[in-house]
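1st attempt posting a full record on here, be nice pls
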Amino acid sequence: MEEKRLEKWIELTERTLLEGVKLQSINHGEPIQVDVLPEGWELLGAGNYAGVFVHRDAQDIAVKVYAPGREGWEAEREVYRRLGDHPAYSTCYHASKSNGLEYLMLRRLEGKTLYKCVLEGVIIEDRIIAEIDAALDYAREQGLFPHDVHGKNVMVSSDDRGLVVDVSDFLKEEPCMMWDDLKKAYNRIYMPFLSKHSMPVPEWVMNGVRKGYRWVRSSSR
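the predicted structure (as tokens):
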């Protein structure tokens, strides 16, 4: 990003978003809660650690703000440093602290998550899976450990490429089988039954699959 534009958006972010936003982590196992959102800003999504925001005048920049008391900002900053500039990942333009809040300024990734593709009946080509696989291999080559890679954290971009959206846990060294399990489901269920026809899957079915998967994984430990 051009330096003058970056300086402008850092100043605006710290003066408006970080001074006005009110967010809290009530339950560490649930998404953070945004109680106050300054004018001009939109909440793109809320995870267990942070909220992601975009300003109406800079739709290509996403600002990830960590909730007070939540760890992970330093680790995620390091992950983006190691990833550098790769087309399957966002780019971290700036990482800092202001008004008692830790934040990352990122290149916004746009598209549909694999989860949403299944919900809407959008065909997921095997090329997309291969591109995400290659991106995860690249992360391993940088000394990272792809973790928590599931259908809501990977995406088909607006220009039809495979993207990895959430890298916040890529420093965790313990094994994570989520992506391998998703690929098995893709090859054994999605490809034979869903890949040839555009057929939306109800959200209640997807939620049942998700809960069943969590139960199977937790009982196998």
